[in-house]
Amino acid sequence: MTLSFRAVLAASALVPAIALSAQAHAQAFYLQEQSARAAGRAFSGEVADTGAASLWWNPAAIADTERAEVAISAAAILPRGKVIDNGTLIRRPGQAFAPVGGNGTARNPINNGVLPSGAIAFPLNDRVALGLAVTSPYSFTTNYDQDSWARYSADRTRLRTVDIQPSVAVALFDWLRVGGAVNVEYTDASLSNKLPNLLASLPDGEQRLKGDGWDLGWTAGVQLHNDWATVGISYKSEIKHKLKGELEVSGLLGPLAPNNLSVSDARAEFYTPAQIIVGGRFRATDALTLNTQLVRYTWSKFDAIRLGAPINTAIPENYRDSWSLAGGVDYAVAPAVTLRAGVQHANTPTQNGDRDARVPDSNRWNYAVGGTFNASPSLSFDVAANYVDFKDTTIDRITAAYVGTLVQTPIITNGRLDDAHAVVLSAGARLTF
Q1: Which UniProt keywords apply (predicted)?
Q2: 26 confidence band (pLDDT: 50, 70, 90)
Q3: Which candidate, 154, 87, 147, places its Cα nearest to that of 357?
Q4: Pick from 149, 226, 308, 430: CA 20 to 30 A from residue 358's CA?
Q5: Which pLDDT band, with edges at 50, 70 and 90, does 21 fall under?
């Protein structure tokens, strides 16, 4: 096998390992369901709220915690939608363009899942507190049928991340809280997709990749507050991820058979975006609190996936910076019961002409309701339900197998994401002691 052909195979396998879809969530493959309390108001005002449940958004949230607090949460994510072929074509060497074939409609390719999260805060004195949040900001599974029209770009993908965020926060003044944190993130990925043989009558080959790695980022934030308003600002850094894993290519026949391989040291580097978060909580009456939050994502950092030696190449992704905007309300209907509602809009970082079936992302609206029941002065329960509505969009990224070789095989993708939506059901508990 030539080095260039090995590079082509490894690159085409590594790209989908990283750029997977988590369609039911904030944007692209980022998950925001890190608190049931937050989900109930569509993730508005989290950067300005207090307590362990807000640690993911702002480490300053625990600065003047009076008692130790534990918050746990889980979200059941139920996505639905169709990824439809509108005439995708493939051209094998020496042949004319022909339909890619296979099942032309992939229904619900993104699997249902449960996302857990938790956080704890300990006050050292009346102004300083330590905290720890454990979340999973990039995790999901996609599963296309083996005969799907999208099989050459997406078959099965499984991604799991664990973000461990130790934090420290200080109330510098009665009106100012500050906080900082380190994000220690573990990533584990596995995936497969099909490879075309030289004749349509031959069964497809396949490539499989699995890999993992530990990486570091950081978070810093402030909160300014008085008796009726709190404004929060935080910055979550981009994280440079480095994955090391194994790549296997099998099922290539005829002249391609010598290119079946097993690589035990495949490596890739890529960035997940920074977040600039600004929000506020405003007490309109003794019972009513208004919430708002704007998040700017630097998804343009995910411009390419860079593969190390001996491959030494880069795969363009061309994501763009994006944002989300949310508004919501908390209303205390009784001393033990608070109801919530909210709405969030987010635009996708994927661009027309660069969107493939593995990341069928689009602009979306998130509608939320929820509430809290205080079972005692130290124990409360949170519940929330979200309905996420995705705009229909194109699946239109032109790809090719074996790029730069004599058997280069272009695939002109022409598909759509239709009728996509998700229901997210969240529940959690908060305990002080």
Answers
A1: Cell outer membrane, Membrane, Signal, Transmembrane, Transmembrane beta strand
A2: low
A3: 154
A4: 308
A5: very low
pLDDT score of 264: 85
- Above 50 in pLDDT, residue 109? yes
pLDDT of res. 310:
59
Q: End-to-end distance of the chain based on CA atoms, in angstroms?
A: 63
What stretch of H or E contains 136?
Answer: none
CA 139 distance to own-chain centroid: 6
Contact (Cβ atoms closer than 8 angstroms) between residue 241 and residue 18: yes
| CA–CA gap between residue 327 and residue 26 (Å, rounded) | 15
DSSP 359: S
| pLDDT above 50 (res 311) | yes
Pairing of strands 113-123, 69-85: antiparallel
Give the closest residue to 13 by CA, choosing from 366, 267, 251, 290. 267
pLDDT above 70 covers a percentage of the chain that reads: 93
Q: Please check the confidence at residue 3 and state whether its pLDDT lies above 80.
A: no
In terms of Cα–Cα distance, which of 272, 233, 265 is closest to 18?
Answer: 272
Mean pLDDT, rounded, for 384-399:
94
Distance CA 42, CA 372 (A): 14
User: Domain-by-domain residue ranges, the chain?
Assistant: 3-432
- What are the helix (H) ranges across 168-213? none
Read off the tokens for 309. Answer: 């030696």
Comparing CA positions, the residue from 424, 425, 423, 422 lying closest to residue 81 is 422
φ, ψ at 20 (rounded to 5°): -85, 170
Question: Which H or E run includes 17?
Answer: helix 3-18
Dihedral of CA atoms 310, 19, 399, 195 in degrees, nearest 10, equals 70
Tell me whether residue 316 is exposed, middle or buried, using C-beta atoms within 10 angstroms of its C-beta: 0 to 12, 13 to 18, 19 or more: exposed
Strand partners, 17: none
CA distance linking residue 210 with residue 103, whole number of Å = 26
Q: Residue holding tokens 């508005």?
A: 44
Fold of 3-432: Porin (2.40.160)
Phi-psi region of 25 (alpha: psi -120 to 50; beta: other; left: phi over 0): beta
Q: Are 226 and 175 in contact (CB under 8 A)?
A: yes
The DSSP-derived string for 360-413 is ----EEEEEEEEEEEEETTEEEEEEEEEEEEPPEEE---EEESTTSTT-EEEE-
Find the radius of gyration of the CA atoms of the chain.
23
Cα–Cα distances (Å) from 280 to 45, 265, 289, in that order, read 5, 47, 10
